[in-house]
Model the fold of this input.
Amino acid sequence: MGVVDDEAIALVPADDSDLTARVRAAVQHLSPALTDTRLTVGVSGAAPVEGLRGAVEEARFARRLAEGRPGQGAVVGHEELATHVLLLASVPDDVRHVFKVRLLDPLRSYDQVHKADLVRTLEAFLQCSGSWTKCSELLHVHVNTLRYRIQRIQDLTGRDLSRLEDRVDFFLALRLG
Done:
């Protein structure tokens, strides 16, 4: 084990396939003892000797991602770096905030004033991959009510939920909280 930039670097055998799970369990076990300290850990994938520099960078990035997680101890493994979470974590906080506000605040404001359920409707619609029938069943509303709500979402945001790009933007904004 070595220390680089106040970060501990540990080299383990490449055949340790459940390393992230074991590290997560160890950190969870340590968490009650971490009263004034926060422990964040990043775990890279296995790498050959010539790929160690990349593995260290991967682990560093995973650790930075773990910093955004709640709790006294957080672990992020390399398997989590191949998702939208990685992209969102690499975007500066102020840019993420503006993105979320621009897309979701019109819906939240409308919901608050009109006691509507547009944000929840949007979440359900995306969860159902845009299926009108499945979404209306999930929300326990008539499909025409759902169509009205989706149209209201589109009117308020200027986005078109039949377009993949706009669905992705909403999905990411909702993931940002």
About this structure: The chain has a mean pLDDT of 85. Residues 2 and 101 are 42 Å apart (CA to CA). The first strand starts at residue 2 and ends at 4. The beta strands are 2-4, 7-9, 39-43, 73-77.
